[in-house]
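Researcher: I'd like a candidate sequence for this fold, 227 residues long. If you have to choose between options at a position, lean toward the conservative one.
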């Protein structure tokens, strides 16, 4: 899965890159579990760690206000509520990109409880199109039909990864695998359409995976701590 490749790893060391990403994911979990939203600056901190919704921050804060965002985030953090109800509450926010809003809710829940819930965004599995990186690894003829099918499939992936030494009480490794698969697919699809000589200009697959996972700020902290 993460074979050594001088073009796609940090300092030619994929194992080191993976361990740093895992550390950053734990930092994101700790951050989300401790974050309290009382001001617009607090809300911005939340949006800054979800890479695909940063551009929607001003729109969402303008359409909903800080009190509404505070309430729906509090609901997401209520671990006594069912998964679907938490997502539904967050979806009550007014936004021009409802799919991003739903992805954001599911991503936050994943990082709040990574030992219980896998990451689920539409590029990992889009039930409306039956597309996403999870479909790349399904057995021939297997089609995911609902939320339970997806959660079961990721749970099985987690078990398979543990056989190869990527064992964890969380779904972190499964998240990395699925996002990494998506990043590689997009990269190769793009390279088919452009001059391959430009391939060296693309960021590494693992660094792009970390970006999609919203880990940029946490990786910066790690880098500064090790400098």
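Model: Candidate sequence:
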């Amino acid at each position: 899965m993460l074979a050594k490749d001088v073009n796609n790893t940090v300092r030619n060391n994929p194992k080191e890159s993976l361990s740093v990403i895992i550390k950053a994911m734990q930092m994101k979990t700790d951050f989300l579990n401790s974050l309290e939203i009382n001001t617009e600056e607090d809300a911005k901190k939340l949006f800054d760690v979800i890479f695909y919704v940063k551009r929607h921050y001003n729109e969402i804060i303008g359409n909903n206000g800080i009190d509404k965002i505070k309430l729906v985030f509090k609901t997401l953090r209520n671990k006594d509520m069912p998964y679907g109800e938490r997502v539904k509450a967050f979806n009550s926010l007014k936004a021009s990109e409802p799919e991003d809003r739903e992805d954001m809710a599911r991503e936050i829940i994943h990082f709040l409880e990574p030992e219980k819930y896998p990451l689920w965004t539409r590029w990992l599995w889009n039930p409306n199109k039956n597309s996403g990186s999870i479909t790349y690894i399904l057995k021939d003829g297997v089609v995911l039909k609902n939320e339970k099918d997806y959660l079961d499939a990721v749970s099985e992936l987690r078990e398979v990864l543990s056989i190869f030494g990527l064992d964890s009480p969380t779904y972190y490794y499964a998240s990395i695998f699925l996002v990494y698969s998506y990043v590689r697919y997009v990269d190769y699809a793009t390279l088919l359409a452009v001059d391959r000589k430009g391939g060296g200009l693309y960021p590494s697959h693992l660094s792009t995976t970390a970006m999609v996972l919203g880990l940029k700020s946490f990786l910066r902290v790690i880098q500064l701590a090790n400098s």
